[in-house]
Amino acid sequence: MRPALIAVLVLLTGCASFPEVETAQQGRVAGVTPALVPMAGLLAQAGPGRANANARDALDARAGGLRARAGAMRGPVHDAATRARLAAAIAAYPALMGG
Questions:
Q1: What is the spatial distance between Cα 68 and Cα 61, in angstroms, rounded to a whole number?
Q2: Phi/psi class of residue 47: alpha, beta or left (left: φ > 0; alpha: ψ in -120 to 50)?
Q3: Do 97 and 90 touch, CB atoms closer than 8 A?
C-alpha cells in the first residue's frame, strides 16, 4: 500500500505549478540569448567599490589567519606515540587487516 501511495504522490508533484519558473519563462524572448561581455567593462560600469582601506586590511588579515590555520592542519594527524600504539594494535590482529 505504501509504495503505491508514494508513487501517486510523486506523480502528483509533476502536476504542480511553480510560479518562479513560469514567470522566468514568460520574461524570456524565444531564441534570444544574453550577450557575453568582458568582465572589465562590467566592473568599470559598477564604479568604485564600497571597500575602503580598513575593510581590505581586515580581509587580508582574515585571509592570513585562515592560511595559518590551514597550514597548522597539514602534516601528521597523530603524534609518534599514538602512531606506534596503532601500529602495534594492527600487528596484533593481522587477520582483521586482511593479512
A1: 11
A2: left
A3: yes
pTM here is 0.33
pLDDT tens column, 15-46: 766 666 666 666 665 667 778 888 888 777 77
Residue 87 is part of which domain span?
A: 1-97
The C-alpha atoms of residue 99 and residue 93 are separated, in whole angstroms, by 9
What lies within 8 Å, CB to CB, of 76 at 6+ separation is: 83
Side chain identity at 33, as an amino acid letter?
Answer: T
Rounded distance, CA 40 to CA 83, Å?
Answer: 53
Cα separation, 40 vs 51, in Å, equals 18
The predicted-structure confidence for 58-92, as pLDDT tens digits, reads as follows 989 999 999 999 998 888 889 999 999 999 988 88
